[in-house]
Predict the structure.
Amino acid sequence: MINEKSNSVHEVESNREEKNIEGPLMIKVILEREYLDGEVSQETIEETIWTLEDFWAKYEQWQLVDMDIDYMVFSRKMDDISPLLKANGYFGVTEDGTLTIFNGKPQKTNIIQSFFQIDLGKLESTKCEELKKGIPIVSKDRYVEVLETFKSYTAGEKQEN
């Protein structure tokens, strides 16, 4: 008797052999990408598996996190910022002086992520104006650079000289 609720690729292959099914295995593959800024994206694709060896080789850079008879979920940490930040992310500052990433130019309602409070009194006026207008992120390097620059202006911490 064939178990219709198989739980592994091996069981799927066994069932296919018992039923004499020829041809490729179709499966839904969900790819989860976790970016440095905490954003997680999901992409769903239909995958045709001709050989398991080729399938596993294709996803060797990914970690299998879940699977069932008709789907597999892979996850991968990306060494980059999310496409959302590259396209529309701006560093800015909230009214209380918290360094924040906004979706678009800084406004109260479009906050994506908050970091730490800045002592605005320590900032040069040009840096303060840049933050109020919004600093476009556009790349991982720019993301890291801005965070590092403003870390030294963290409110309430004493600076070592």
Summary: Strands lie at 25-34, 40-49, 63-67, 71-77, 89-93, 98-103, 111-117, 135-136. Residues 140-151 form the longest helix (12 residues).
